[in-house]
Design goal:
The complex is a heterodimer.
Chain A lengths: L8 H6 L2 H7 L5 H24 L2 H6 L1 H17 L7 H17 L4 H23 L6 H11 L5 E2 L2 H7 L19 E2 L9 E2 L9 E5 L4 H5 L4 E3 L2 E5 H23 L3 H6 L3 H17 L17 H8 L2 H13 L4 H13 L4 H12 L5 H7 L1 H7 L14 H6 L11 H4 L2 H10 L4 H12 L3 H13 L11 H22 L4
Antiparallel strand pairs in A: 1-4, 2-3, 4-6, 5-6
Chain B lengths: L2 H18 L2 H9 L14 E9 L2 E8 L4 H9 L2 E2 L2 E14 L11 E3 L2 E6 L17 H21 L5 E5 L4 E6 L2 H4 L3 H11 L25 H22 L5 H13 L5 H9 L3 H9 L6 H13 L5 H5 L5 E2 L14 E2 L15 H9 L26 H15 L5
Antiparallel strand pairs in B: 1-2, 1-4, 3-4, 4-5, 4-9, 6-8, 7-8, 7-10
Classes of the chains: A mainly alpha, B alpha+beta.
């Protein structure tokens, strides 16, 4: 080994490039491919593990999260991609970097890879920083990633002068709150905490806002003049975004690099990439594969929606057929569902046109909506192979006025949900059960319950993490039942 | 529009692009000369796209690029496309790419201003004076509050300096954020900024109306939300209670009930009264008279639900989104899409903005010799400053550009 630099586990994860050039020659291509394939398998298993648990549960219960993490670590170890001795980190870097290349091809692939990587990194990060008393190690990693000047501790003076201790509204004259009791700063959950200690400022850091995007967009951090002021425990979460952000940029840049184009001319490498991708799509529950089918078309949408669609899509269809219009987010959600469900593009266009035309002319439809549908089907612009939005994405939505996208089970208030289910003629007791699940924040369980009601059947272990799973499983179930009926009929 | 109006409109547009459209200023602005050496061909790598009418049909021309003002004007005035008479309706500004934009080539978008877009129809559920694309002086106040709330967030929180505020010509405003580091930002940075500026207001069926407000005490909310509340409440009485009487609207009532229920203020008597009363001030007084620790937070939610800026996030978050540029003519209203002073949005009245027929009339009164150009390689002399109803807006634009390019004194 030429490189005598001490390899810290954690930094090895972050600093891939320095090792790449020196070590690739030494790693047998077949070994490399096997390592990559093992990783993909591990990533997917962990990914499934995470998606089975509802987001809310994870956040609320640190014990549960710990359990989840140790399960994940076990999976990673099974495929030897979690930790090991010296040489491991070199292999780890090589495999990771090679996978980055294999997934750089399109934004969609990049997103997929980053989703995988998020779990691994998060778990490694937790483990590494678990017992850290000071923030020195964390800060060191930050500085390595961002450069020395990008993150600084704040001074006493900044603390005193820059930071609002409390904002006061003129009509609130509440003397009991002493000024300075609360400090309005990045404390993780868009809330204030009591910081009375004179030395609190030592635990705050300052960095340009673009280094902590997640905290900024969720309004979790105090901003001034383009700088985010971050409390130490939030800093850990931010690290993940910085790391993944860097990775995304690196991967996106690959697409435009001359070297990448050259690499793609190498048959052997391309074969390896293909092999990796086959492993990936082969493992996934059918949802990422493309297929086309005829049973779902412009004329059958209505009925199929009633029989096989999850509530979120059924609701969109209902609103579309009443209003003859859907706003952008709703159109995206339903069109990508159509695509993933195998509806042909011409049928999707025909159906949307049929609905919209009751309000606007065909010419206006073609002008304003056609491109969007074709784009979603990957026929325009970047020609990406988009997929149906996942449940976790839909649940994060907060539909505004005249918008009907997102997850109705989560977004609706209980009264509205109850009314809607009643209009669908579900039984009182069933509705009650669904509402109870909703109130306990078990939205996906409630959705599974609806699946069982629609299909009048029982399927244990069904996990709906994407509307398309609901649909596919419902279709499959229907086919099985049909088959059963046919085979049970006496032969003539 | 009847046929004659259509012909006049097209003829006026041609005259407008010839004499009144501030072509050199647009080029100066988008060159950002302070940051870019001429050899980088920064301006030429910018995508322009156009809506053109040929024989009554509308066509889009994407991925156009220009060397300078002369090239751009030549294109704007070109009324022959494939031997057919055509008119250029409007122009859109796109991203700056890594190379000269051309259709079909793999292009990487490098830079683009972040444009914050607010359309009046997003406020339809809380306004009673107009709906849809219509706008009046009363509606404008909603956008004025939006400007007042966004301004400190942009200038103080994000530390931005160069924001060009433009009235879209019909029912909305565009804030072009032009700071150099902002133009270079990735889609992820754009989304984060918009995420910070936006709060999602749920619809009448929603479980939570404003998700960002989960605290029981106002003092514990993020300062930007507190500040927004402080600004919005100064307008609430006039706009919501008096001008619009918004609280009588069915969906607004539903949302108020949801908010009151969540804050545990609602009781059957209050619910019944709110449903029966149709006078906003009375409803508001009734709510304010409730005795609860959470009253203030409920009031905050109601006020922000009515007045918080409703951004069209979609426009801002993608780097290569195309948007109508300043000083376009809005095809439906024929109003000029003019800049306004963000710090003084209350002085701006969208109904006072110049219209195309009007400025063309003023143009006709100017002596012919002013309108001649030296030779074919020059652009036509710019006469916008000679038109009284247009010149103040030109001045604003000019000030914006010169402020941008002024060297910083440290």
């Amino acid at each position: 080994m030429q490189n005598q630099k001490e390899i810290l586990q954690y930094e090895a994860m972050l600093y891939i490039e320095p090792y790449m050039d020196q070590q690739t020659e030494e790693i047998n291509k077949r070994d490399l491919l096997n390592m990559c394939i093992d990783r993909i398998k591990a990533y997917q298993k962990v990914n499934q593990l995470f998606s089975q648990l509802e987001e809310n549960d994870q956040q609320k219960d640190p014990l549960k999260q710990k359990e989840l993490h140790s399960k994940a670590i076990k999976l990673y170890n099974e495929y030897s991609c979690y930790e090991g001795k010296d040489k491991f980190w070199i292999d780890d870097n090589a495999a990771h970097f090679f996978l980055e290349l294999a997934y750089s091809e399109s934004d969609e692939k990049i997103n997929e890879f980053i989703k995988y990587q998020r779990h691994l990194f998060q778990i490694r990060c937790e483990a590494q920083l678990e017992n850290e008393q000071t923030n020195e190690r964390l800060l060191k990693i930050y500085k390595k990633l961002l450069g020395d000047n990008e993150i600084t501790k704040i001074s006493k003076q900044e603390w005193d002068e820059d930071i609002p201790k409390q904002l006061r509204l003129p009509n609130q004259v509440d003397q009991s709150n002493k000024l300075g009791n609360y400090v309005i700063l990045g404390t993780g959950k868009s809330q204030l905490r009591n910081f009375n200690n004179v030395n609190t400022y030592l635990k705050f850091f300052k960095t340009p806002f673009y280094n902590v995007l997640h905290s900024v967009s969720s309004i979790h951090t105090f901003l001034k003049n383009g700088f985010a002021y971050i409390y130490e425990d939030e800093l850990k979460n931010c690290l993940l975004d910085v790391f993944l952000g860097k990775m995304r940029k690196r991967m996106q840049a690959n697409q435009y690099k001359f070297q990448y184009e050259e690499l793609m001319k190498n048959d052997e490498i391309v074969k390896m990439f293909k092999k990796i991708q086959q492993t990936d799509s082969g493992m996934l529950s059918q949802k990422l594969q493309n297929f086309e089918q005829d049973s779902l078309n412009a004329l059958t949408v209505r009925q199929q929606s009633k029989d096989h669609f999850p509530l979120c899509m059924e609701y969109l269809i209902d609103r579309l057929e009443v209003n003859h219009h859907l706003k952008h987010s709703g159109r995206q959600q339903i069109q990508l569902f159509f695509k993933s469900a195998g509806m042909k593009v011409n049928e999707a266009i025909k159906y949307m046109k049929m609905q919209f035309q009751q309000k606007i002319s065909e010419q206006d439809f073609n002008k304003n909506y056609l491109y969007n549908i074709r784009h979603n089907y990957g026929l325009e612009g970047k020609r990406e192979n988009y997929q149906c939005y996942s449940c976790s994405y839909n649940m994060k939505q907060n539909p505004g006025n005249d918008e009907y996208h997102g997850c109705p089970i989560k977004n609706f208030n209980s009264d509205v949900l109850e009314k809607y289910l009643k209009s669908k003629s579900y039984e009182e007791t069933d509705i009650k059960k669904i509402i109870e699940l909703k109130k306990g924040n078990h939205f996906q369980l409630a959705c599974t319950e609806i699946w069982h009601l629609k299909n009048k059947g029982n399927q244990t272990g069904l996990i709906i993490d994407n509307p398309i799973v609901f649909y596919r499983e419902s279709l499959n179930h229907h086919k099985k039942v049909q088959l059963k009926i046919e085979t049970e009929e006496p032969a003539h | 529009m009847n046929d004659q109006d259509q012909i006049d409109f097209y003829r006026n547009l041609h005259l407008y692009y010839k004499h009144l459209f501030p072509i050199q200023m647009i080029v100066d602005w988008l060159s950002y000369a302070k940051d870019n050496q001429p050899e980088l061909k920064y301006f030429s790598r910018r995508e322009f796209s156009f809506e053109r009418s040929i024989d009554g049909e509308t066509f889009y021309q994407r991925y156009q690029q220009f060397q300078n003002a002369h090239g751009l004007q030549k294109f704007l005035l070109d009324n022959k496309q494939n031997d057919q008479a055509s008119t250029l309706i409007k122009y859109d500004i796109g991203a700056v790419f890594d190379k000269l934009p051309k259709k079909g080539e793999k292009l990487k978008a490098m830079e683009k201003e972040i444009v914050i877009d607010i359309d009046m129809d997003a406020y339809d559920e809380v306004r009673t004076c107009c709906q849809g694309a219509k706008i009046c002086e009363k509606c404008w106040k909603f956008l004025q509050v939006a400007c007042d709330i966004l301004r400190p967030a942009l200038f103080q929180d994000f530390g931005l300096e160069h924001i060009l505020a433009v009235y879209s010509g019909r029912r909305g405003i565009h804030l072009w954020v032009c700071d150099s580091h902002i133009r270079k930002s990735t889609n992820e940075v754009r989304s984060a900024i918009i995420g910070y500026l936006n709060i999602n207001i749920g619809n009448a069926d929603a479980e939570e109306i404003i998700r960002e407000v989960k605290q029981e005490k106002i003092e514990k909310l993020h300062p930007s939300i507190q500040r927004a509340y402080f600004i919005a409440q100064q307008f609430f009485k006039q706009i919501i209670l008096i001008d619009q009487n918004s609280l009588k609207i069915e969906n607004v009532k539903k949302k108020i009930l949801t908010i009151l229920k969540q804050t545990k203020i609602l009781n059957p008597k209050l619910e019944k009264s709110i449903q029966e009363i149709n006078d906003s001030s009375q409803i508001w007084d009734l709510i304010c008279s409730q005795d609860s620790e959470r009253l203030e937070i409920a009031k905050l939610q109601i006020i922000l639900m009515c007045l918080y800026p409703r951004l069209d996030a979609h426009v801002s978050t993608t780097i290569n989104h195309l948007l109508k540029g300043p000083f376009s003519i809005h095809p439906k209203t024929q109003r000029v899409c003019v800049p306004f002073n963000l710090k003084n949005s209350s002085q701006f009245n969208p109904l006072d903005t110049p219209t195309l027929p009007n400025i063309i009339k003023q143009l006709a009164q100017l002596p012919e010799e002013l309108k001649q150009r030296e030779n074919e390689n020059k652009i036509f002399p710019f006469l916008g400053k000679e038109i009284p109803s247009l010149s103040p807006y030109i001045q604003l634009f000019e000030d914006f550009i010169s402020k941008y390019n002024k060297p910083k004194i440290n």
